Amino acid sequence: MPESPSINDVIESSHPPLGSRANTSLIRMVISALLVCFTLLFTGAPPLHAAEESDSNLLELYYEPSDLAVSAATRSPRPLSRSAEDITVVTAAEIEAQNAHNLAEVLNRVPGVQVDLRGGLVTDYSLLGSSFRHVLVLVDGVSMSNLSDNAAVIAQIPVGNIERIEIVKGPASTAWGSALGGVINVITKSPRETAIPGGSASFSGGERGTRDAQGELTGTMGRLGYYLSGGNVRSDGFRPHNASDSNNLYAKLLWSLRDKGSIRFTINYLKGAAGEGVFPLPARLLPILSEGTVTSDLETSRLTSTLALNYHLTERLALDLALKGSLLDADSRRYFLTSGDTFQLVDNKEEAAGASALLTWRQGLHTVVGGMDFDHGHTKTSSDTFTLLGTFPAPSEGTNDKWGFFLNDTIAWERFTLTPALRYDRTSRDGEFWSQSLGATVNLTDRTLLRANYARGYSLSTINFDPAFTNERIWAIHAGIETTEIPFLWLKAGWFRNTARDVAVNGERLRLLKEGFEVEARTTPFFDTWLSLGYVFIDARNADTDRRLQEIPRQTWDLGLHYDDRTFRGALLGHYIWWNEPSTRGGIAFNARYDDFIWDLNLGWKAYKGQNAEAELFFTGHNLFNGRQYTNEIFVNPSRWFEGGLRIKW
């Protein structure tokens, strides 16, 4: 008798050879379309108000009502308690309490997001162990990920204009296309709905010439709302040749169409320069070159803009149209430390433009979202290398056009939610991709929520023609529970498992199996004091050999002791990450160290609180106990240092 196929055999059989892709794509399209259409048969059922009223019972003690709706997973707002995906929301209030300067610092405090803060603009990051190449970073719906290597300079993105951050941990390809590892969706602040202008101004200073000056102004004139912000962050750096200087300008204009919707225009400009540090030359070059060390400077500027229309066609049907564009110019210069002579120049220029259109239909049990995306991107990278090396890399240039069509439905019936989703993408460089997902939530009680989600996703190859980074595909499952049944405690726990094909890890292309779990907990405030905990464990293996892999973080801890009585606030935060680095990489010893927790102390005092204005003094002590946590001794983390400042709001 033939042996029955295993679940892995079934999964692998769904990835046919290229020659049979057309037939299987048609089958997938038909099956997935039938699944979505089947759910639409119930659209005539009346809305269940009782279910809607109980949606926030579980989470309302821990989030503000405005933060209970998320849009990153389906492209349309829905209650967090109706979301089957593993989603974390970071609010503007939480960002402010951290005294953070940029997006990288905020993400470093989110369980499941691993950030290697290397100083300046240099930052490496991953999402549940998925490389930055697999994570889509969005601001106002515009991708901040470079076309050349799919990386975003998250240390350059300011946080003063952020309303909230939605983080989807796991494949989000059914909504966004190339997002194998997840999405970091940054939503900026909206204009204040009063004729009297409001705003804020803040300044902080600290050791090593660290300074941060930010300001914002917002209000409404008639039907036109405006939000403006800008600032500068600079530092002399905490390592040799690690100084940085970043500027940001942002504007959002919102024209009200009264009860019909709005027209929104945004423009965002980021410019920064930083020293990346001092690097030893490879041993093979030492006999050729007289100097043994080089240093590197990075300059980058990005301009993005959007024009969007939100229009309510009927009481139940809404149309969203958007145009977007982006320009990027990044230059890297490496030069000899002693003489200052140039060793290498790399110039990368990118242009991107796109459009999207989607319809949201709310009827009875259903919230159906369907639409299309178009993106055009062009990148050109040129490199001039020192003549003694005898190498002159030719400029790499590439273009990619992407068309995407997506459809999803959120079916909310009393305590149960079902979310089927389907997307088709066609790219000029990598061909076609189908992405599917199916999620469900069940409210066992008003205080306990179960989640489960299955998803397939992909990531595109990089346009810089690096053969190590071709397109990759993944299937993933996630199951979790969120509860407040235990007195005085909010608890969220989840388990995940995924398999990705053709993933480049440590110079190998392999089938990657990742499995793990995450836990988040928070106590109810008692005398304005509460505790928080986050823990994530990841086991990454070669799925074919069962060999455990390194260079993928294995576990992280986030601990917090918080106090806030609306006048005084304080937080003692501990962060630990086991980077799981090999002793050597490519024959080079990086001498990584990560045995210590990094403890930070954030304090704030509202020295003045008036009817229309307030002023707060704040202070941060970084790395209080001089812990060591770095993946490469070139990027040694700063020792203990302090900063403080003043924030005024009106």
Strand-residue proportion? over 45%
Number of domain units? 1
Give the termini separation: 78 Å
Count the DSSP helices: 6
Overall number of strands: 34
**Residue-averaged pLDDT, rounded?**
85
Helix content: under 10%
Sketch the major β-sheet.
22 strands, antiparallel, barrel
Low-confidence stretches: 1-56
Tell me about this structure:
- This protein is 7% helix and 56% strand.
- The protein has a single domain (7-649), classed as Beta Barrel (Maltoporin, Chain A).
- The protein is mostly beta strands and 650 residues long.
- Strand 14 and strand 15 form a beta hairpin.
- Residues 1-56 have low confidence and may be disordered.
- The chain is built from 6 helices and 34 strands.
Structure at a glance:
By secondary structure, this protein is mainly β. It has helices at 7-13, 21-39, 49-54, 92-97, 103-107, 173-176; strands at 69-70, 78-79, 87-91, 113-117, 123-127, 130-131, 135-139, 142-143, 162-169, 182-188, 198-206, 210-221, 224-235, 244-256, 261-280, 293-312, 317-336, 342-363, 366-385, 396-413, 416-427, 431-445, 448-459, 472-483, 489-505, 508-523, 529-542, 555-564, 568-578, 584-585, 588-589, 598-609, 614-622, 641-649.
